[in-house]
Amino acid sequence: MASSCGTVVRIDLAYCRVSTTAQDLARQIDAMRAAGVAEEHVYVDKRTGANMDREGLTALLAFARPGDGINVLTLDRLGRNMRETLNLVHDLTERGVFLRALGDKLAVDTSEPGPGTDMAIALLAMFAQMERIYMLERAAGARAAKEARGLPTGRPAKLNATTRAGAAQRIEDGAIPEQVAADLGVSRSTLYRELRKYRDRAATEPVGQED
Fold first, then answer.
1. Which sequence spans correspond to the domains of the chain?
2. Please, is 131 exposed, middle or buried when counting C-beta atoms within 10 Å of its C-beta (0-12, 13-18, 19+)?
3. How many CB atoms lie within 10 A of CB 90?
4. Angle between helices 115-148 and 82-95 (to 10 degrees)
5. What average pLDDT is seen over the chain?
6. Which residues in the chain show pLDDT less than 50?
7. 2-28: per-residue pLDDT in tens?
8. What end-to-end distance do the CA atoms of the chain give, in Å?
9. CA distances from 36 to 10, 24, 42, 63, 105 (A)
10. Phi and psi at residue 156, in whole multiples of 5°?
11. How many angstroms separate the CA atoms of 65 and 110, rounded?
């Protein structure tokens, strides 16, 4: 965020992401430049092998300040699934960071709330809930199949002691909890629950003891 003579200046930022080699990163970047976003304020993530490098989004979320605006070509570029995207939309809104989708058929601009933005976010929430129900149904089916074969169905620990310690250190260093959770493939509530386990054990167990 820039400042001149005591006046806070909004910075236009941008996030571009591709998750397959068939997607065109240049098209997204060109759209951001056409929207007036300076090149140094365009943050990029792209697929590398089997993993998604999310350093661009992490850096963007750390840099953005209240009053700044984040531009994306479409809302689905912001997150890897609907639930993650919806969480980020809500988190950015709570932080006072505006979001604008340049290429979605429904106009999305949280700096100027209107029917289009409200409808797009409502649809995103609805599809995120449908996605969650579908995942729960798949999990229930898989659990039933295991039980029928006499296999264990207990859920393993989401994070081990080393991963919990690393997550705690990242947050202490200023990382956004929502992004840490996304990088670890867990929900925000799961991350907080695992961090509580880490802090509780750290207070009662010898240093170096793991799960």
1. 8-123, 161-202
2. middle
3. 13
4. 140
5. 79
6. 1-4, 6, 48-51, 210-211
7. 444 545 568 999 999 887 665 678 999
8. 43
9. 13, 20, 11, 18, 20
10. -70, 160
11. 15
The amino acid present at 86, given as its one-letter code, is L
Q: 8-123 has which fold?
A: Rossmann fold (3.40.50)
Query: Which residues form the catalytic set?
Result: 19
Report the interhelical angle of 55-63 vs 177-184 (nearest 10°): 170
Instruction: Provide the pLDDT for residue 50.
Output: 43
170: left (phi over 0), alpha (psi -120 to 50) or beta: alpha
State the Cα–Cα distance between residues 70 and 142, nearest whole angstrom.
Answer: 39
Pairing of strands 12-18, 69-72: parallel
